[in-house]
Amino acid sequence: MFRFSNFMRPVAMSVERILLGGMICLLAGGWAAPSQSAAKNQSGPGATHKPDPDIVLIEVYKDLAANRLRHAQAKVDALVEAYPNFQLGHLIRGDLLLMHTRPVTTLGAVPTLGVVTNGSQEKLKDLRDEAMARLQSLRERPDPKLLPKAVLQLREDQKHVLLVDAKRSRLYVYQNQAGKLSFVTDYYISQGKLGVDKFKEGDQKTPLGVYYITSRLAGARLPDFYGAGALPINYPNEWDKLNGRSGSGIWLHGTPSESFSRPPLSSDGCVVLTNPDLDKLFASVDIGKTPIVISDQLEFVEKTQWDADRGTAMGLVEAWRRDAESRNPALLMANYSQHFKAERGESFTAWFAKQQQPVNRARSGSLVLRDLSLFHYPGEENLIVATFTEDSVIGKSRSSARKRQYWAREGAHWKIVAETRW
């Protein structure tokens, strides 16, 4: 099993050396054996028992490394029969057929025998990129002993969290059981044509951040372009808006009926899955609850480091709660940054005064926090986002509200740089 606590990528190799030829023998011993969960749980309810494309690709290249061409051919034949619109599968099948008559040293050798146009060259590059993304990610599967650094705590009713790794063109699903995270499965994904770090409408980039699935749209209600359906997310979130990011309509969605999958960089900013994978993902999503962390490159860490990071984040929120409950404005104010950004553009002094008005009118009060979730925010250095329910008693008044705080490290201290309440 590959461990990637630092997510160090392998030394760069050409597509040809990785996918075909003599390097197959060197790589075949490095494939991580797919776990039962990683096999997409095809024996579960509603399973179609079709072969999993990623697992078939591993088996094919193992067969080639062992000079079992006919075994590899049979597996690819079954793959394209199960998924007639899987263009990468057809490309590999063509190469295997050609191998019966001549050596093949490059992925997609068949098109080179005929007239090659600019369009076909671009399509061939897309398929090679997809093959590279699929196989490299499968050689670097998450070590089950490691934990995603970005996810520090989930609410009890958040049963799953989705994590997108743009560098690996992969979406990982983790399960939350009694506060413990465990790897469930992962899927190949496509992202924005120009990569990640979305800033404005139409920039063809996928956003980085912590978001939530806001709804589910059935495929029957959408154009064929979106395939099996869509899961919209809440981009832009509060942090995006405070930092001038704009745009809308960022979804997780499927593929058109004519295509099984899309190249790694091919959307206008959405996260795109194959239709079979999206159908499976629907079962892991609770609308309004399931978080999705979109990162340029995920980091996985030892549990000791994860526990320490979680303890730090929980300590920040608890210190804020005590200071808020103390009814001492100076103590509470010390938790906030001089660079604090209010949603409506008002100064921190004006914003803080409004928050303190109910407290100033009361003689006593208490504050209890529950349903806490904590994340390291992707794309930012040392930023933690905490979301919780705040149950407050101020004098004779009782109220509950959801609150989200963004904590940034400033020197040796952590300070709140943004806070929203609803």
Descriptive notes:
By secondary structure, this protein is α+β, with helices and mostly antiparallel strands. It has 3 domains: 124 residues, no CATH class; 155 residues, L,D-transpeptidase catalytic domain-like (Beta Barrel); 119 residues, Roll (Nuclear Transport Factor 2, Chain: A). Helices cover 30% and strands 26% of the residues. A 6-stranded mixed sheet has the order 2-16-17-18-19-15. A hairpin with a 2-residue loop joins strand 17 and strand 18. Helix 3 runs antiparallel to helix 4 and helix 4 runs antiparallel to helix 5. The N terminus is likely disordered.
Gross morphology: elongated
Structural classification: alpha+beta
Distance between the termini: 44 Å
Q: How many strands, which pairing sense, and closed or not: the largest β-sheet? A: 6 strands, mixed
Helix content: 25-40%
* Beta-strand content: 25-35%
- Report the mean per-residue pLDDT as an integer: 88
CATH topology of the largest domain: L,D-transpeptidase catalytic domain-like
Helices and strands, with pairings:
Layout: H1 15-19, H2 23-27, H3 53-65, H4 69-82, H5 87-99, H6 118-138, E1 147-148, E2 151-153, E3 160-165, E4 170-177, E5 180-188, E6 191-192, E7 209-212, E8 217-218, E9 229-232, H7 238-242, E10 251-253, E11 265-267, E12 271-272, H8 275-282, E13 291-295, E14 300-301, H9 303-325, H10 329-333, E15 336-341, H11 348-360, E16 365-376, E17 383-394, E18 397-410, E19 413-421
Parallel strand pairs: 3-13, 6-11, 10-12, 15-19
Antiparallel strand pairs: 1-14, 2-16, 3-4, 4-5, 7-13, 8-9, 9-10, 16-17, 17-18, 18-19
Helix pairs in contact: 3-4, 4-5
